[in-house]
Each structure stands twice: as C-alpha cells, then as structure tokens.
C-alpha cells in the first residue's frame, strides 16, 4: 500500500530510478487533503489556475463518477456564474487533458470524469488519490479495532491522518470546495478523536494530555475532545484539573451557545466525583461498544516435565490456593516456602502454580526477587514491571514505592490473579508486592522462614526422600540405564544429599554422556576430596551441588568462573569479561561458552553473561579459596574498573570534543571499548549503566577510589538522562563518604561537585549549595583544576535558580577565570552561558546575548554538537527575555532536537518548558499549554521545583484560553509543591489564586 501513497514532491523518491526501464510508465497520483496537486511518478504536474484546480478537485472528489457541465459550473461559481462559464469549463478541461495521461480525463454524457484504466478499482481512484487511501485506511482501522487489535488500528489511523498536508483544498475557490473543505475537516477531527480514544484505551493517557490540551484550545466547543481530556487527566492522577475542564466547558457553552453540556460529559463528571474504579482502568472505554479486553498476564516459567514427588506439599499448597476463591471472607491466600538453596522451592512453587491456573483466570505474575544475591530486586522496580504487565502505560506508573503499591492493588481489585514471588530476601521485600483483595493469592519462596509475614501459611521444604530422589534421577537418565544399576543410582542420589538441584545436575551430566555407566558417575561422586565436606546440611549442600560442575572445568575455565563472580553488576559483557580475565575477547568467549553449557553461567543475550545469584555466591567462595595469589582478586576488579573508566572516558570525549575533563581523569592501563560512531557510544553507556555504577560502589577502597570517582565524572550523562539518576546519586553519595573517610580531598572535592549536579538537577538547591561550597574549598585545598572550575560554576547555576543573580555572577566569573586558567574552553563556554542567563534576569540584556553567543561560538568551534544544545538553550532564554520571540523559538527548537537525539530526556522536558514560556510571552497560549504538558509528561531538570513552575505556566496558559477552573487546579497543585519545599515561587502562585488579596 505504501507504494501508492500520494505525497508532496519532496517526500517522494524518483520512481523511475527504482524500476527497470522496461516497466510501464509511471502512474498518476493526486492529492486534495492539502493543495490540489498531481504527479506522474515523482514528477509534479502543473494544475493551472485556481479555477482549473477547482475543476480538477470537483472531478477527483466524485471518485470516477461523471459530473455534468451544469454541476461543474455550480461547483466553481455557485449562483453567479460568468457569462462564459461553459466555455471556461471546457477550456480548463482541455488544458488538464493535455497535462494528464491520454484517456484519464474523459468526456461523456455532456460532462467529464477522471478515469485511470490501469489503476481502476471500485472507486475509480482508490490508491491514486490521497482521500481514497485515507478512507481505506480508516475502514481498515475500524475493522482492526473491532477485532481487538488496537495497536494495528492506531497505526492505520495515524497513517491516514499523516496524509493531510495543511488546509484541505488550499486556495481552491468556489462553493463546492468550501463545502468539501468543511466536510473533510470535520472527518479529520472525527478520526483524531477516534485515535485519541484508542490512545486512552491502551493506557497512553499522560501522553494524550498534551495533544488534547492543544486540540481543545483550537476547538473549544467540541465536547468530545473535552470528554477525552477529562478522562486523560483523571487517569494521570489530575482529578482536580479533570473536574475543572468540565466547569470551563459548562461555562463556555452557556456563554457562547446558551446550552448545557451533553449527557455523556455530565455522566463522566459524576463518575470522576465518585472516583468510579472503572475509570482508572486503561482499557475502560467511554462507550460500551468500544470495550477492550483487560490485559491478562501469563508469566509463570515453564514447569519441568520431570517433576517428581512432593505429593503432600503439592496437596497442601493447592488447598491453600483454592481457598482464595472460596467465600470464606479471607483477604487473600499467602503461602511462603522456605528451605536451603537447591532444595527445589522454585520447582515446587511453579508446579503448584501451573496446577492452580484455572482458579486464577485473570492471570499469573512472576518475578525472581534475587534475594540470595548482593543486589536483591527493589520492590518499586518489581512493581513497575507488574504494573506494565497489568496494562499500565509507563507514563502512568508513579515514582514512589507507596504510590506504585497502591496502584498495583487497585488494578488487582476485582481480579483473580496468582502472584509467584520467587527467591525473596525477607518479608519487608515481599509486603509491597502482595495483592490486597480476596480472590488473589501469592506464593513466596525464600531461603529464610518468614515468620514475620502476617497471615502467611508457612511451609518448610526439606530434601527429598530417597524414593523421590531416585524417581527424579530415573526420569532424567532413563529407566533402562538405572534399572540395571539400581544400587549405583541410590549411591549417586545419596552423594547428592538428596538435594533436587544436585540430583538434576548429576543426572543431566550422565544423560549427556552415553558412554558412561551409572557406576562411573557414582564413583566420581564417592571421591570425598571433591564432595564429602560439601554434602552436608545447610548452605554447604548448595556449594557441593555446584562443585559437581566446577570440579570438571579446565583450569582456565575455573579461573574465569571464579573471577567473573566477583563483579556486582547484573550481567557482564564479553569485552568487560575479557578485561577481568586479562585475555583477548576471542579467548575469553572460548572459556565462557563451556560454562554456559554446564549451566554455571547464563547467556543473558548475545555477548552478555550473568550468574544465577546462588552460583555467583559459590563462585566468590571458590575465588576466596582457590585464587592464588589472593591479590589476583583485587587485580581482576582493578582491570574491570580500568575497562569501564577508559570506555566511559572515550564516550565522554566523543560527546564533548575538546573538554579538558578527560585530561584530568586517572590514567588507565587498558584502552577500553572502541566505538564507530556517537550512537554506538551512547548505546554502550546506557546499556552498561547498572554495571558501571555497581563497579563504582565496589571500587571505593584506597587503591581504586580515585578511578571510581573519575568513572562517575566520565559517565555523568547517566545522571542527566533521567533513566539512571537514582542509582547514579546512590553511587555518588557512597563515593563521597568513602573519600571523606579516607581523607582524600582530591576525590572528595570531585564527588561533591558531582553530587551538587545531581541534587541541582533534582531541584534540591539548598543541599546542592552546601555540597558545592564544600567542594570549592576542597578544590582549593587539593589544587584540583577540575574542581576549581566546576564548583563555582555549579554555585552560579544554583544562585540563578534561587534568584540570587548578583551572587551567581560572582561565582560564574570566578568559574570563567578558573576554566581559562586550565585552558578548558568547553567549561568556559558553559560558565558564559550560565552567566548570560543571570545577566538577562538583571535586565542586562545586551551583555547577556553577547555572552550566550560567545559560549555558542566556542562549542561550535570545537564541534560539540551535544553541548551546543545547552548554548542554544541559554541564548533562547535570553532572546525571549529581550522580547525577540521568533529568534528565541528558533534557538530552543534546535536545542530540543539535539537533546532528543542525545537521549537527554530531562533536558528535553526542560526545553519544552522554555518553549512554552516563549509562546505565552508571544500571546500564543495554545502552543504554550501544549509544550507545558509535554514538559510535565517528560520530566525536567530541577525535579519537583521545576514541576511546580511548569504547572504555574500551564495554569497561566489555560487561563488565557478561558479554561479558568482547570488553570486554578494547576495552580493549586503548584502551590502544594512550592509550599512543601519552602520555595519563594509559592508567593507568585498565591497571587494568581487570590489576586485581590495579593494586591
């Protein structure tokens, strides 16, 4: 279908270049959803005067049917045609006939028609006219929606809407064109409403608010748009604004038309007032016929086909789960299985969960909580995954643990869902993840007995009985091989301590080696030097299980297994593993793949590896026991730190050419990862974020501290992107505390500057100012040029944000001097741009513009495309304050594009806020409201403080659009934010809410 979409010439490629010369001539295409145009292949055709285009449009819109001369005259001139109207129509037709292919414009029955014989369909023009294609796409979208395929339906509608190219029948005169223009504009709005309705059905409410705000501003009397906006705001947690939209609509309709809102809008208002639970469901439609099936997760891992024994436990747990659906008044059923590692807790829980699926028709959720590892899963992270599995959009998922848990329980209300929480650390980790209503149930597995999990049915899982152990072994190895060596098989399972995981590993090894007998395996396990001390009660049994695989490794493989287990990251890349082992990548891969085959290592993705948490613990125990000399453990982690630092430094240098920061970082012994372009460099940095930050926190000893701190500096994009900000902050705080404890003023100064940036980005300006002040003193004390330049620069930024512009000027001039002394031109450019904003706020506009342009010139000269965005951002703000709105928008729009390309989401949102400010200053409240909404949904530098500012601006924009109640709702939210933080902006908001009192 794409090959026949009519597009404007610059959107098309030359068709004759794509097709062999022997093929048929290029086809004709027409458009009416914009200017009336025609193409032959990629070649635009002249369509003549406005009246001639009006004739062409009238024929095209008849979709192949004949139009009489009288109908065409009426279409072009209405009731007052010129005296030579018939001759004019004939002239226009003759001219068009010469332009178009022969036989396309035909004369018949005293009139004319457009016919395309080689493209003929039922409509005569389907595929050759943008309108016909739009109609076909809309029809297909309706069918897809009726079939429940909302994703495809939305894509089809978006494709249809993309065919509009400005005003329909632009510059075409005549009453017929005017009527058709109104009809097609109305149809387009209907399609937009349908698509927005599907957006809300799929949970994209936060994203929809921005577009709906702009649409309601452009079409204030269109109640359907208002209804959709109310629902989108309500689902975004903005109930007051949703109700305010209704109040604004009621007042506007009364003033303009003297009518009340239609019943559907009134009903929605009442449902919002009553907090109707059905409204919170992303799939809940506004009309019954548009309902969509709720998301039904089915996340249980596969049950092992050779599950054996545990009959009494299966019966006991099944009975508890069945009580969840019985009318016994129970809130929910919770069973907690406890036992040592390898005893089969997960296998049993998964088996029971599969058996119980019929009692939980609304789905099953599963998560490995990684409680036995050093990095147990955080409940808020797990809740985020569960909420997405239950149908919540990313934008609808709150930040805090409490809010996520509340939304999770709300989504489960009325559903019957089974939740399997595997490998829990403790009851505190589990509690936020439990359902809160009857009909649901939770199965929990853990190495500890959860006596403090209120109301839980506790099950202590012990090792298998000899009979069960032998049954499991036989199922895996095969009846024939075991039957002839029954005693040897009993010896094997006894040597495994009757632990299911150990039995499974032993049996799998035997099954994979057809030349072995059971006696051979039994003899291997009888060697007490490898097995006896480990096959004891408690956790030692887990180590013995893994010793079966570890003892079979070649020395180089065993060394790889031990050393890779030292790294804390969730997984490790092949290149990073090569650094740990101090080997070439190819040789490293040859060592790791056999470890995957023996299940001692998992392949997380091509070129990435990870340990099961228990295997990682075992690997570390092996390293402590076997790695000689012991210093090799520290050397391995030092090599990993070097690898990450060198690679992150390379990313930093690619993103910021000429920045002197890289010259002040610790020298590494390894070259790091190679990158072919900027995109791959950023991909690496963001893909390795968790591993990088884990390495930082693992490398805070005396010999590695400075490199760990510099790794934070080199990977600062992780903080500014918003994706890894919290983990970055935690690593920075840990590094600061370690540096202070070790008395390393050089490292402490750098960590405090870095923490200042993190706190400032989050809007915690007082805390940031305290860190920056301490950093400045440490910089002077240690003589570190990086800290001496960056600390006062951060102090200046904070002073500007706190409206202390004179103080900020002093700091920033100090920073400029320090950067110049260090020959750090990018640092100088940053300080110049920051100073320009402060001077503009003090009405020193000319100097401010000059400084911003100086900063931009430095970035441009260095080729720093990424940081050029910051300069354009600063210049845009200064130009806006000077009243030069068009220039300001140009600069800010360019900055926005660069931030988007470089994945700086927080800067992206902040730039939307600045663009909104310019629109409002230029008397464009509709555009201001739209960009303010985008800033809210994206997030901004400055955290909650900036969110309060965005809400204030959004309220001003809505107020200018006549949406006074919604404006007040925004201001009330902003006031709560600013009062909570003690921000001075609270006074401004109070004045907006109560202008008489403020006066």
Mind explaining what this structure looks like?
This is Tetratricopeptide repeat protein. One of its GO terms (biological process) is regulation of DNA-templated transcription. GO terms for molecular function: ADP binding; DNA binding. Residues 19-116 bind DNA. It comes from Streptomyces spongiae. By secondary structure, the chain is mainly alpha-helical. Among the domains are: 1-201, Orthogonal Bundle (Arc Repressor Mutant, subunit A), CATH 1.10.10.10; 311-460, Rossmann fold (3-Layer(aba) Sandwich); 466-549; 553-628, Winged helix-like DNA-binding domain superfamily/Winged helix DNA-binding domain (Arc Repressor Mutant, subunit A), CATH 1.10.10.10. 60% of the residues lie in helices and 6% in strands. The chain is built from 46 helices and 14 strands. The chain has a 5-stranded parallel sheet with strand order 8-9-10-7-11, with helices on both faces. A hairpin with a 2-residue loop joins strand 2 and strand 3 (43-45). Helix 27 packs across helix 28 (678-687) and helix 32 (725-742) runs antiparallel to helix 33 (745-761). The chain is globular.
Helix/strand layout:
Elements: H1 15-18, E1 28-31, E2 37-40, E3 43-45, H2 50-60, E4 67-68, H3 69-77, H4 85-99, E5 105-108, E6 111-114, H5 130-146, H6 150-161, H7 175-201, H8 205-218, H9 223-235, H10 239-256, H11 263-273, H12 311-322, E7 333-338, H13 345-355, E8 364-368, H14 379-389, H15 401-412, E9 418-424, H16 427-430, E10 441-446, E11 457-460, H17 466-477, H18 479-483, H19 486-495, H20 500-511, H21 518-525, H22 540-550, H23 555-564, E12 572-573, H24 574-581, H25 585-597, E13 602-605, E14 608-610, H26 613-626, H27 631-655, H28 678-687, H29 689-698, H30 705-714, H31 717-721, H32 725-742, H33 745-761, H34 765-782, H35 785-801, H36 805-821, H37 825-841, H38 845-862, H39 865-881, H40 885-901, H41 905-921, H42 925-938, H43 943-960, H44 964-981, H45 985-993, H46 995-998
Parallel strand pairs: 7-10, 7-11, 8-9, 9-10
Antiparallel strand pairs: 1-2, 2-3, 4-6, 5-6, 12-14, 13-14
Helix pairs in contact: 2-4, 5-6, 6-7, 7-9, 8-9, 8-42, 9-10, 9-11, 10-11, 10-44, 12-13, 14-15, 17-19, 17-20, 19-21, 20-22, 23-25, 23-26, 24-25, 24-27, 27-28, 27-30, 29-30, 29-32, 30-32, 30-33, 32-33, 33-34, 33-35, 34-35, 35-36, 35-37, 36-37, 37-38, 37-39, 38-39, 39-40, 39-41, 40-41, 41-42, ...
């Amino acid at each position: 279908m794409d090959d026949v979409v009519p597009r404007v010439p610059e959107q098309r490629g030359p068709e004759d270049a794509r097709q062999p010369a022997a093929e048929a001539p290029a086809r004709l295409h027409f458009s009416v959803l914009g200017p009336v145009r025609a193409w032959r292949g990629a070649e635009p055709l002249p369509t003549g005067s406005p009246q001639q285009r009006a004739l062409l449009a009238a024929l095209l819109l008849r979709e192949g049917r004949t139009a009489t001369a009288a109908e065409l005259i009426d279409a072009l001139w209405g009731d007052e045609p010129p005296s030579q109207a018939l001759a004019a129509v004939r002239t226009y037709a003759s001219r068009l006939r010469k332009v178009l292919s022969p036989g396309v414009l035909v004369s018949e029955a005293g009139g004319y028609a457009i016919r395309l014989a080689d493209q003929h369909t039922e409509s005569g023009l389907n595929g050759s006219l943008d309108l016909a294609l739009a109609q076909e796409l809309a029809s297909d979208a309706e069918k897809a929606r009726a079939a429940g395929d909302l994703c495809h339906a939305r894509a089809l509608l978006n494709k249809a809407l993309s065919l509009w190219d400005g005003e329909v029948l632009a510059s075409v005169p005549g009453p017929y064109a005017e009527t058709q223009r109104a009809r097609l504009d109305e149809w387009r709005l209907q399609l937009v409403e349908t698509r927005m309705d599907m957006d809300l059905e799929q949970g994209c409410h936060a994203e929809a608010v921005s577009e709906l705000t702009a649409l309601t501003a452009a079409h204030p009397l269109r109640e359907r748009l208002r209804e959709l906006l109310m629902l989108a705001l309500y689902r975004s947690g903005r109930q007051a604004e949703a109700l305010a939209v209704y109040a604004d609509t009621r007042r506007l309709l009364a003033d303009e038309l003297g009518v009340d809102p239609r019943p559907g809008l009134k009903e929605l208002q009442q449902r919002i007032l009553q907090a109707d639970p059905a409204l919170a469901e992303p799939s809940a439609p506004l009309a019954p016929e548009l309902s969509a099936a709720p998301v039904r997760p089915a996340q249980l891992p596969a049950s092992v086909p050779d599950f054996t024994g545990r009959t009494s436990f299966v019966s006991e747990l099944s009975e508890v789960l069945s009580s969840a659906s019985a009318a016994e008044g129970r809130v929910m059923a919770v069973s907690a299985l406890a036992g040592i590692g390898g005893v089969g807790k997960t296998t049993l829980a998964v088996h029971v969960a599969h058996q119980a699926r019929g009692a939980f028709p609304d789905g099953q959720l599963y998560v490995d909580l990684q409680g036995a590892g050093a990095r147990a899963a955080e409940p808020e992270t797990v809740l985020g995954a569960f909420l997405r599995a239950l149908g919540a959009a990313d934008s609808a998922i709150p930040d805090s643990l409490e809010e996520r848990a509340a939304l999770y329980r709300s989504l489960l209300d009325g559903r019957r869902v089974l939740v399997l929480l595997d490998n829990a650390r403790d009851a505190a980790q589990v509690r936020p993840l439990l359902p809160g209503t009857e009909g649901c149930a939770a199965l929990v597995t853990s190495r500890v007995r959860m006596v403090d999990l209120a109301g839980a049915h506790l099950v202590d899982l012990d090792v298998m009985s000899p009979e069960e152990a032998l049954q499991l072994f036989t199922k895996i190895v095969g009846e024939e091989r075991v039957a002839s060596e029954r005693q040897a098989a009993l010896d094997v399972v006894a040597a495994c301590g009757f632990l299911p995981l150990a039995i499974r590993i032993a049996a799998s090894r035997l099954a994979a080696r057809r030349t072995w007998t059971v006696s051979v395996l039994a003899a291997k396990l009888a060697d007490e030097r490898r097995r006896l001390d480990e096959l004891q009660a408690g956790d030692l049994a887990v180590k013995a299980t893994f010793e079966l695989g570890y003892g079979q490794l070649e020395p180089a493989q065993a060394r790889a297994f031990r050393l890779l287990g030292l790294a804390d990251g969730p997984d490790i890349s092949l290149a990073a593993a090569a650094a740990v082992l101090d080997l070439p990548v190819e040789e490293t891969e040859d060592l790791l793949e056999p470890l995957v085959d023996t299940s001692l290592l998992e392949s997380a993705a091509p070129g990435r590896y990870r340990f099961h948490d228990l295997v990682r613990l075992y690997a570390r125990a092996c390293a402590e026991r076997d790695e000689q000399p012991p210093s090799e453990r520290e050397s391995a982690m030092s090599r990993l730190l070097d690898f990450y630092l060198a690679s992150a430094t390379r990313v930093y240098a690619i993103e910021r050419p000429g920045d002197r920061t890289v010259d002040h970082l610790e020298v590494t012994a390894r070259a790091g990862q190679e990158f072919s372009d900027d995109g791959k460099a950023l991909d690496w940095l963001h893909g390795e974020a968790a591993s990088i930050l884990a390495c930082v926190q693992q490398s805070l000893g005396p010999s590695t501290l400075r490199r760990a701190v510099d790794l934070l500096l080199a990977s600062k994009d992780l903080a500014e992107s918003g994706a890894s900000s919290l983990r970055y902050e935690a690593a920075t705080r840990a590094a600061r505390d370690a540096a202070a404890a070790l008395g390393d003023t050089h490292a402490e100064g750098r960590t405090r500057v870095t923490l200042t940036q993190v706190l400032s980005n989050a809007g915690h300006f007082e805390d940031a100012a305290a860190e920056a002040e301490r950093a400045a003193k440490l910089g002077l004390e240690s003589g570190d040029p990086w800290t001496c330049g960056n600390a006062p620069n951060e102090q200046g930024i904070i002073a500007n944000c706190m409206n202390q512009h004179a103080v900020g000027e002093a700091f920033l001039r100090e920073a400029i001097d320090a950067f110049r002394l260090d020959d750090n031109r990018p640092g100088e450019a940053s300080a110049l741009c920051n100073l320009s904003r402060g001077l503009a706020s003090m009405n020193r506009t000319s100097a401010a513009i000059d400084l911003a342009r100086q900063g931009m010139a430095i970035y441009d000269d260095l080729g720093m495309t990424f940081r050029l965005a910051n300069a354009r951002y600063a210049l845009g703000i200064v130009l806006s304050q000077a009243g030069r709105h068009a220039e300001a928008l140009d600069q800010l729009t360019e900055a926005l594009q660069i931030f988007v390309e470089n994945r700086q989401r927080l800067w992206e949102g902040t730039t939307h806020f600045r663009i909104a400010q310019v629109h409002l200053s230029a008397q464009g409240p509709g555009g201001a409201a739209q960009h303010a909404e985008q800033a809210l949904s994206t997030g901004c530098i400055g955290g909650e403080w900036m969110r309060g500012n965005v809400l204030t601006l959004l309220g001003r924009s809505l107020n200018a659009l006549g949406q006074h109640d919604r404006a007040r709702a925004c201001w009330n939210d902003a006031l709560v934010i600013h009062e909570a933080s003690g921000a001075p902006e609270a006074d401004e908001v109070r004045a907006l809410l109560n202008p008489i009192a403020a006066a």
